[in-house]
Amino acid sequence: MSRWRRSLPGNAIYYTMFALIFVIVFVPIVLVVFGAFKTRTELFQTTPLALPSSFLNFSNFKLAYTQGDMLRGLWNTTIIAFITLCGNAILGTMTAYILNRFQFKLKKVVYGLFLVAMIIPAYTTEIARFQIIHSIGMYDALSAPILIYIGTDIMQIYIYMQFLEKISSQLDESAMLDGATYVRIFRSIIFPLLLPATATLAILKSVTVMNDVYIPFLYMPSKELVTMSTALMKFVGARGSDLSALCAGIVLVLIPSAAVYIAFQRFIFKGLMDGAVKG
Questions:
Q1: In this predicted model, what pLDDT tens digit does every residue of 247-272 receive, in sequence order?
Q2: Where is the ABC transmembrane type-1 domain (predicted)?
Q3: What is the CATH classification number for the domain harbouring 171?
């Protein structure tokens, strides 16, 4: 009994925090889903948490699909995400392999630059980045967000390096004795063994790319280059907004990323845990 009393304050704090996080995360989603099935009149005349009169009202989804050009947005988003994930995996694994296996004078400096890049807010360097993208002729093209997304970050390098710590360097030495070059070692040994970490990071990166609004909206203003996230901007204007269609569009945007995350969440947690524990 005394043990239960001692643990009661801790349990109360735990469940309170859990309830608070649940409210913060799921209540906005519920509001958006309810709003997607409401008419414009119903949306303004009822409270946000009020149930819609019918969950069979798909007119907002039809409007979001047609006026928002969601099919084109899905196609552009898929192209950006696919090329980004391929390039990101290659650059990330190569960078981690070099930092883990090779010794050179500027190794700590290179690693420190990745840390500095993570600390500095990206918006503070936006003007310089925009000028670079514009000067090399990538502005208003799919290549602009791809080039930005494709860069590696410290989280990727850290996870890959933790996986590399579990891969014995004797494999590299044995392959070199057989005449294999560093490129062959990376291609035939290292990269295949890093596939669990690559799959984990690819899922997380794909969700980030699909949900990003800022970069596609800034670097691809053309209507032909709309993505699923920037398509939502068509329902928001200075003179008025169609909130019902906007809610329906948000639901359509959330479906692909949520489906990817839910389907592969066990691989995400497994990959993170495997990378966090050294063998």
A1: 888 888 888 877 877 777 666 656 55
A2: 74-264
A3: 1.10.3720.10
